[in-house]
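User: Can you recover a sequence for this backbone? Please restate the input before giving your answer.

Assistant: Of course. Working from this structure:
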């Protein structure tokens, strides 16, 4: 149940590095600059960037910060392959943040750190390198998408943090699009937050958060106006979870483009 970590001939435990090579090659073919943000031995952190020649919104996309949540890592492959990450946006993409966790199939990094709680005062050199990169951006990102998975709910859900006043909800548009072909989590409370038809708008005060900052909270601090965290249900087949992630990313891009 939900433990599969293989897709299209790649297994994240056994053949992660062939998969990483595939992603880097594909990104180069699509005109991205491919770099290693943190050259840790055995777990290099890959970053893909591309600036559009046009005056367009900038988008941040990340996956694989929790090593037991593979759907987003695979979805980035499919999105690159079909050309969905196009010149309508400037791009900053982290296709797999927690490489060592992905290799081991564990939520945390082998150091014991939950990388998605390490953004306030980073203890991990990987997250320190990522924060330095985010802070070196010339301007704030317009939208960030963080691809995650959850064992508990039976359907897709998302967290939306949007600081634009009176803006039309991009999260709502994503739920509507994903819901056409996939189940949406029905619970009125998910992970301690109240949810409405799979949409959570968490009320959080970063200054009093006890567990450390997730990537999305770090970005809300003047670094990005719209933060969407997508959660696919780990109990469903991996191929369907990958479709959900791809569908959610494309729906959010469409909503941003037409906002
Ligand atoms: Zn996660």
């Amino acid at each position: 149940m939900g433990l599969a970590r293989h897709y299209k001939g790649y297994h994240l435990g056994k053949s992660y590095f062939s998969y990483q090579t595939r992603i880097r090659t594909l990104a180069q073919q699509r005109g991205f600059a491919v770099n290693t943000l943190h050259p840790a031995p055995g777990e290099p952190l890959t970053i893909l960037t591309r600036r559009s020649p046009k005056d367009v919104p900038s988008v941040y996309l990340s996956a694989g910060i929790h090593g037991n949540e593979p759907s987003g890592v695979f979805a980035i492959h499919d999105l690159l392959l079909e050309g969905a990450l196009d010149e309508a946006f400037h791009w900053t993409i982290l296709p797999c943040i927690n490489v060592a966790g992905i290799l081991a199939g564990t939520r945390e990094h082998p150091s014991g750190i939950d990388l998605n709680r390490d953004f306030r005062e980073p203890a991990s050199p990987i997250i320190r390198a990522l924060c330095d990169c985010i802070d070196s951006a010339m301007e704030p990102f317009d939208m960030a998408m963080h691809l995650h998975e959850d064992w508990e709910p039976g359907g897709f859900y998302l967290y939306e943090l949007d600081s634009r006043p009176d803006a039309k909800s991009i999260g709502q548009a994503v739920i509507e699009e994903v819901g056409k072909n996939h189940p949406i989590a029905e619970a009125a409370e998910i992970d301690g937050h109240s949810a409405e038809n799979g949409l959570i708008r968490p009320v959080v005060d970063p200054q009093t958060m006890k567990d450390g900052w997730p990537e999305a909270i770090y970005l809300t601090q003047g670094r990005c106006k719209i933060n969407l965290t997508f959660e696919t249900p780990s109990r469903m087949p991996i191929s369907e979870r990958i479709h959900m992630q791809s569908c959610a990313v494309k729906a959010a891009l469409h909503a941003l483009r037409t906002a």
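That completes the design. Residues 66, 69, 148 surround zinc ion (CB under 6 Å).
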